[in-house]
Amino acid sequence: MRIxxxxxxxxxxxxxxxxxxxxVTLKPDSVLGLATGGTPVGxxxxxxxxxxxxxxxxxxVTSFNLDEYYPIAPDNDQSYRYFMNENLFDHVNIDKTRTYxxxxxxxxxxxxCKAYEALLEEKGPVDIxxxxxxxxxxxxxxxxxEKLNAVTHITGLTESTVEANARFFADISQVPTKALTMxxxxxxxSKKIVMLISxxxxxxxxxELLNDDITTxxxxxxxxxxxxxxxxxxxxxxxx
Length: 240
Ligand code: F6R
Description:
Elements: E1 2-6, H1 9-26, E2 31-34, H2 41-52, E3 62-65, E4 67-70, H3 80-87, E5 99-100, H4 109-123, E6 128-131, E7 153-156, H5 159-165, E8 178-181, H6 184-188, E9 192-197, H7 203-210, E10 229-234, H8 235-239
Parallel strand pairs: 1-10, 2-3, 2-6, 3-5, 6-9, 9-10
Antiparallel strand pairs: 4-8, 7-8
């Protein structure tokens, strides 16, 4: 794992966006793996800026998001589909029919997960995967556990994740307690992984990631087996 330490969130967002810009410049039909949450918002703003000034063309890009709450409608303003439209897709020249997010309304969630994994097999591999990290080390919605799931699956969210995500909802009781998420194996199939870590509340989890242990109790540590992971963090996360 390579680590890039940035002065602040602005610099982290710009550095992260540069990786995506370079990827799409070198391979215009790249498959991008995308994430939601607070951390990537600044990076998406930069990508919109590059698209508007003509230095980044999304017209041949395909994208796959890591996860989606379940159940949730795509037009619910808390859904990850809505988030992606608002924070990126509606502002760039991406073909939305090639932007994939797990279907939060699927009648049969297990079948939806299988179909998502199969679609990734067909269109992938993901050239570059963007990741955030939970304070408990979750990536996507792969929460700490005795065992982790390799493929896209339906999962329950831990209490700490529900609490962390409550900031986006009017009330904690509205936070969905389930999600559809790529598995650890799905994520590790990406050719390159860029993880953004910002803020001092992520200091502890970042420190764990930088020691030598691999443990399912901190799912992000599994990334250490991947040959091409770049962690971009700010000083607040690095120094605590
Ligand atoms: C989002 C996702 C999550 C977030 C993580 C960090 O698609 O998969 O793993 O990356 O919860 O969220 P923030 O950036 O809000 O701290």
